[in-house]
Amino acid sequence: MSVASRSRAFTLLEVALVVFMLAILASGLAMPFATQMTLRRQAETNRLLEEAREAVLGFALANGRLPCPATAASHGRESFEPGTDEREGRCSNFHDGFLPGASLGFSPLDGSGFVRDAWGLESNRVRYAVFGAGQSVAGIPNPLTRANGMQAATLAGLGSAPGYLHLCASGAGVGPSSCGAASNQLTRRAAFVILSLGPNSATTPPPGSDESRNVDGDPVFVSREAGVARDNAFDDQLTWVATSLLASRLAAAGRLP
Amino acid sequence: MPSSPRERGFALVVVCAIVAIAVATVFTTALARIAGGSTRAKATDRALASAREALIAYATSRPIDPVVGPGYLPCPDLDDDGWAESTCGSMTGETGQWQRLGRLPWKTLGLPDLRDGHGERLWYAVSSKHKGLLNCTVSAACLDMGPETALGTITVRDSSGTVMHDGTLADPYEPSAGGAVAIVLAPGPALERWAGVGSAPALQDRSCEGGRCNASGHCLTHPPTLTPKCDPRNYLDRSPGPAYADEDNAGFIDRNDLPGRLGNRDGFILGPVAGPDGHIWVNDRVAVISYDDLMPRVMRRVADEVAACLRAFGAGPANRGRLPWAAPLCRASDPEASLRFADAPGVYFGRVPDTPFAAAQQDGGASLSPLWVQGRETCAIADSAGVTAGASGLSWWTSWKRHVFYALSPAFGPDAPTLPACDRLTCLASAEHAEAGIAARQSFAVLVAGAPLRRGAIRQVRGSPADLDARNWLEGVNAGLRLLNPNPAAPQCPAEAVAGAGSRREDALRVSTTRTFDRNDVVVTHSAERAR
To answer: Which residue has the higher pLDDT, B423 or B289?
Structure first.
């Protein structure tokens, strides 16, 4: 019997050991699986942003102007100030609106006509900002969103305008209309910005953090590598198009000058 | 012993489970690697395409002024701060060769931080002819970026070593076979770089340690290439020996003076390049910007600028939609220099006239302006006083104006009545849409002649006295616009023997805007409806 009891104890130990080993192996599989998922979602979002960028440029080729951002209540359609339309180009939200998926004919859209990034929450609606907000180029207010506004502003006028939307390498020293130090500036000539808030979209970024700069409604945005620093975590993904590239596409299509 | 067989059975299950998990792990990793490989390749292609488009946009869409015209590209970024350096070699490219290969200046181009599929920033090489120079304004040769002179200089080979673009060629008849204008490279992952037969290949070192970089990753050494992170040899690869032209992507030679051009054999090779044993020695992916990618767009920009000047002229309140006479070609080499680009009465087709538009003012009365519209930014071929650019001092327009032609509809001539009216005998029409009726009527056309053609029946020659014949510049119906002019076009000219004498006037009013194999003019027209 002593043999039998020893062997029974051995089996128990064996089972414990095996369960432990299985757990380690499974977690070894699961860990890269989680990072794989994150990377995959980032890559997918990146691709989505690029598709969105092409869709906005396509809208510009077809209409000779950029679309206005959608508001939370506009069902994915571009939204102008009440009582105005594309003849004035006055958007209701120039800098803190959403990609007007319905106006762009984009797919897939969520139930309200918005485009969502790969994380898929309602707060993950892809955002979109466009230059304007009453600023003029060559005497033409809101030249990019106004019908034939770029034609009226002329290539030369568009080229010599001092600035459009600003993209900064970090939020440090950023003001409401510039990146602060010149070394902090990525570009000041972005015609539009397309933005995904990433996995933490549902939480409000702490005031003063780099992420807060992207939702504060001013024409200055921050684009940097993802990081998890406390109080300044960053997982937004952005893409943008310079005004020169927009003008070049329009000129190639015969929309300019 | 009833327990012993149970134990053995359990061990088998355990072994099976472990084997299954191991197989699954190996399988998923392999699958992820394969899928990852194609996503990486796609990401690289997308980054290269964005870079290419942004560079072409930079050359064609930048603001220009009466001195410096379009067609220049930025210098590369050597210290990885994203901004183009302000200089990259002398005008002929004799000096500063290493400064013409660096990273893509993504901030200068207004691009996001582009990365290839392996997370590396892109590299970029620019031709010595197309690099933008701050002191370009002091040299007429540097300002000359016309279709016959702005030829590429960079040699490009395909992955077998065969030349695709030959930088030693300076033949305006073969601009597309000649060198490339710029190159964008995606460096891919670090590999063991070929170091020649008998030498051990060394792994590329992309580090930035020992205080050679600042917190933002910018290289601080002088020159920056002393830092491994900013040394092209650690990113760009070398082909394995003479069978692949011994091409090293970390260096090239491109001069644009005639004796120097012969050395332009050293250029770039398109990866991937595999040795005889299948080993990949070059993993750089390359996007080429050729003469054909850039020049038609630059010509279009020039045409647009001239059209803007003419539009602004016609829109002047006193000018009432009327346009100046053209400068007849037959006086292009007149001994009297002031006549060469001067307008002449009744000339509907010719080159864009220099100011003052004396003949136009004679026929149109004192109300017609003898100058372009005054003020900056309205007309890039004139100074702020409305005088043709280059009349005193240097200008890009001086070299371009031989290439730019202008046809005006008789209805919009200086002698036209108050409100110009269009019919099929008085207005230009697009040859492609001749049946479209009044909507196709154009008030004027600006035609920019490309490099000379030697194709099919066309044998174009440039230089005096061939310059006097429009057929040496424009092709097809566009050259036929000369039949609109009186014969001879100006008192100083001999009468032209016209083969198709008696041809219908409305046929001479045709202008073709499409580019084909045997027509390389870039044409911009202005709708008569909008001109009124």
So the answer is: B289
d(CA A15, CA A8): 11
Residue B437: what pLDDT? 60
Q: What is the mean pLDDT of chain B?
A: 86
- What confidence score (pLDDT) does residue B79 get? 92
Taking the alpha carbons of B140, B141, B143, B144 in that order, is the dihedral positive or negative? positive
Ordered DSSP codes for B331-342: GTT-SSGGGTT-
Chains A–B, number of C-beta pairs less than 8 Å apart: 110
Give the closest of B25, B39, B304 to A29, CB-based: B25
- B39, closest residue in chain A (CA to CA): A43
**Structure confidence at residue B49 (pLDDT):** 93
Tell me how many domains chain A contains: 1
State the best of A44, A236, A244, A255 to mutate against chain B, taking most chain B CBs within 10 Å.
A244
Q: Look up residue A136 and give its DSSP letter.
A: E
In total, chain B counts a number of residues equal to 532
Residues of A in contact with B18 (CB under 8 A): 21, 25
> B3, B23, B34, B61: which to substitute to probe chain A, counting the most A Cβ within 10 Å?
B61
Q: How far is B104 from chain A (nearest CA, A)?
A: 14
How many beta carbons lie within 10 A of that of residue A1, not counting itself? 5
Residue A13 in domain: no
Which of B61, B111, B112 is the closest to A251 by Cβ? B61
| Beta carbons of A11 and B10 less than 8 Å apart | yes
* Facing residue for B60 by CB, picked from A18, A189, A248: A248
Q: Per-residue pLDDT tens for A210-253?
A: 999 999 899 999 999 888 888 888 999 999 999 989 998 888 88
pLDDT, one tens digit per residue, over A72-98 is 999 999 999 998 888 888 999 999 999
- Of the ranges A2-11, A193-202, B87-96, which one carries the lowest mean pLDDT score? A2-11
Q: Is residue A119 part of a domain?
A: yes
ipTM computed for the complex? 0.81
Residues of chain B positioned with their CB less than 8 A from the CB of A14: 7, 10-11, 14
Q: Using CB atoms, which residue from B32, B216, B304 is nearest to A251?
A: B304
Cα distance between residue B461 and residue B381, in whole Å: 26
* Stated pTM of the model: 0.87
Give the pLDDT of residue B439: 59
In a domain, A16, yes or no: no
Average pLDDT rounded to a whole number, residues B145-149: 91
Query: What would the mean pLDDT of B313-331 be, rounded to a whole number?
Result: 87
User: Is pLDDT above 50 for A1?
Assistant: no
The shortest C-alpha distance from B311 to chain A (Å) reads 11
Highest mean pLDDT among A52-61, A173-182, B306-315, B508-517: A52-61
Q: Which of B7, B62, B112 has its CB closest to that of A238?
A: B112
Q: Is A15 part of a structural domain of the chain?
A: no
Distances (CA, A) of B278 to B272, B273, B275, B282, B293: 11, 9, 5, 11, 33
Q: Sort out which chain A residues have CB atoms less than 8 A from B21's CB and list them.
A: 22, 25-26, 29
Reported as type and span, the H/E element at residue B294 is helix B291-315
Contact A91, A128 (CB under 8 A): no
Closest-CA residue to B485 (of B379, B346, B319): B346
Q: Do A257 and B307 touch (CB under 8 A)?
A: yes
Q: Which residues make Cβ contacts (< 8 Å) with residue B8, sequence separation at least 6?
A: none
Q: Which residues contact A85 (CB under 8 A, 6 or more apart)?
A: none
Which residues constitute the domain of residue A187? 46-252
Kindly state whether B202 is in contact with chain A, defined as any CB-CB distance less than 8 angstroms.
no
